[in-house]
Structure formats: C-alpha cells, structure tokens
Amino acid sequence: xxxxxxxxxxxxxxxxxxxxxxxxxxxxxxxxxxxxxxxxxxxxxxxxxxxxxxxxxxxxxxxxxxxxxxxxxxxxxxxxxxxxxxxxxxxxxxxxxxxxxxxxxxxxxxxxxxxxxxxxxxxxxxxxxxxxxxxxxxxxxxxxxxxxxxxxxxxxxxxxxxxxxxxxxxxxxxxxxxxxxxxxxxxxxxxxxxxxxxxxxxxxxxxxxxxxxxxxxxxxxxxxxxxxxxxxxxxxxxxxxxxxxxxxxxxxxxxxxxxxxxxxxxxxxxxxxx
Length: 274
Known about the structure:
With 274 residues, this protein is of the alpha/beta class. It is 38% helix and 19% strand. It has helices at residues 3-34, 49-57, 72-80, 93-101, 154-163, 167-170, 180-188, 199-203, 240-248, 252-258; strands spanning 36-42, 64-70, 87-90, 111-115, 118-122, 144-147, 174-177, 194-198, 212-215, 227-232. InterPro entries: ModA, ModA/WtpA. Residues 1-26 form the signal peptide.
C-alpha cells in the first residue's frame, strides 16, 4: 500500500470514529431530553411531590421529573397557552373537561388518582370542633369560610351544611374564598372563626399543629365528593414518561403516599368528563 493510500485509509478510519462518536452523543442527548417529565400539580400537593417524584423515578432509570406547582386555574391557563407541561394534575374536573373540549389533552389518559375529604377547622379555642357541624348553630360564630363557586370543594361543603340542616341559616354568614390558603388566612386574621377545608390541607406539613379539625363524615356529602385527576396534555402526548406517570398514580406506591395525606382512594370506575 502506498504512503498516500495508507494516509487516506487512516483518515477515513478517523472520520468514521468521529462520526460514530458524534452519533452516539446525539443519541445520548436525545435520550436524556426524552427522559424528562414536567408535571403541573396543585400547590396543595407541595408536601407530597418529593415523595411522589422519588417513588416514580426509582423505576425510571435516568429519568428526570419536575413539578410545576400552582393553582388548578393557573395551570389550566398554562396548558391552554401551550406551555411545556406534559401532565396536568387538578382537583377541578371541570377545567380538565374544558381542555378536552379545546383539544388540549389526550382523553384516554384521563385518570382519577384520589378523592378528597372535608373538615371543619378552627384556631379559635372558644369553639370545640369535636361537636361537628352543629357547632355552627352557635350565635358566637359570625363567619365561616367556605370554598366559592370556582372550587370543586364548594359543592361538598354546602352539601354537608344542607345535610346538617344549617345551610339556609348560615348562608348570610358564609365567607366565600378562592382557595384553601385564603380560608386559612381568613381564620388566622380573625375574619372568620371557622373554615371548611380539604382534609389534605390540614394534614400538610406546613399546617402541623395549627388549629384543630373535625373530619366530616363522607356520607354527609356522598354525592359531591371531589375528585382529583391527572391527564396527559397535548404537549406531552409523545412523551412515554407522561403516560407511565399517569398509570403510576394509581399504583400502591403512589397511594401509600397520598392516602396518609388526607385523600381517599379513587373510585374503581372511570368518570366521563366529556
């Protein structure tokens, strides 16, 4: 072989090696990119996202999971605007139904992962919440903070008051609130003596030891139990991690994290939100 041919052969070998290396790097980069999952979740889940993330990632080698925490309404706006959220978790099924109508989510991925519960809560030592809702008949109770019409927790709260025969009497004393955090602030500030909150709110780490609560029996609002659901967005439809995360939320691993946090198991049957 002539020196020129030898040099040419060596150059071709080097070129081939570099090409293979670049292709490997490109494949690796693409793989890492595809192994990232962004989940939009309600702020109320802040105390549970680390545990959920660890449990999910444990079965997904090399994957990364990032949560974006906000109100269900704000997350709805983000998904509607096409922001890069792969999964949308929400306690407001109406918003997810609207996303379906707008073609912004993958319908057959929609899954309920938990059901909510409600409690009567107060920081005012004058009131013994162990008495339950009948405590609200006390004339000393001037204001009771409840979720407003924009929250899925309004219906169960009003249903429980109706069941107790107090709704009509208390109507003028109800303080409508946009969020659980707003209700807590109202009680802290003395704007309301008591509040009807979601159970997961009072069990959140930030609420440990704050006030006292009474767990309202589910049969007092059985037709209005709020659902918590997750769905793959249009943006995340081609991300396999998004689909696996949806299935993960109903596994024993995920439920072991959520149930102690004040949630109930989701119903075995699916709910049609179309």
